[in-house]
Amino acid sequence: MILSIETATEVCSVALHKEETLLACYELFTEKAHSSSLTLLIDSVLNHTRVSMQDLTGVAISAGPGSYTGLRVGTSVAKGLCYALEIPLYEVNTLLSMVYQVSQIPAYSNFLYCPMIDARRMEVYTLLADHHLHLINPTQPLVFTDDSFADWISAQATDILIFGNGAKKCKQASTNPNLILIDHIYPSAKAIGDLFFQQKSQPVDLAYFEPLYLKEFQTKAKVKTL
Asked: Which CATH architecture fits 95-182?
């Protein structure tokens, strides 16, 4: 039994797989609710499937990039479960799990995939991959401009699908007809579990594992009032 946890964006979700079969997936679309909701979602998934904590054989975590706070919450809960149950922790790249979702849609099999997670202003976390999930450009922060993808498109000579919560603002700022926006694709614990089984991931070092933050945590400056 593999429990999957997704907290990299505003979506908080938990899934349970038995071997490669999905047993349950609960998703919560509420911003800034991860710390108060994640353990409740885990309890709901286990209760719904009548599976006990002791039945779990591992935890697969969405390892980023994404929200600093969200990733920290997910990692803390996942590590706590793994330590308490003495089971391994596995990491799955958040962006690659989004690519996996889109690659399962037959109509999109002849494109390149560019998931985008919002990193504020005109910056996104992104990568470029093909239908077989082979990386063409690795995970990276990217400050978007109108010609940001010109080299990628000319080098590959094909259209690029963009999706995720950072994709719409990029499409609105771009005049490039080779960028095709897909709505309603978001990180999901179901995809984390599915991709874990496909990749046959190896356990991480539980003591030293850190999510892929890409950027340091930033707080807004306080405004002094007189």
From this structure: 2-Layer Sandwich (3.30)
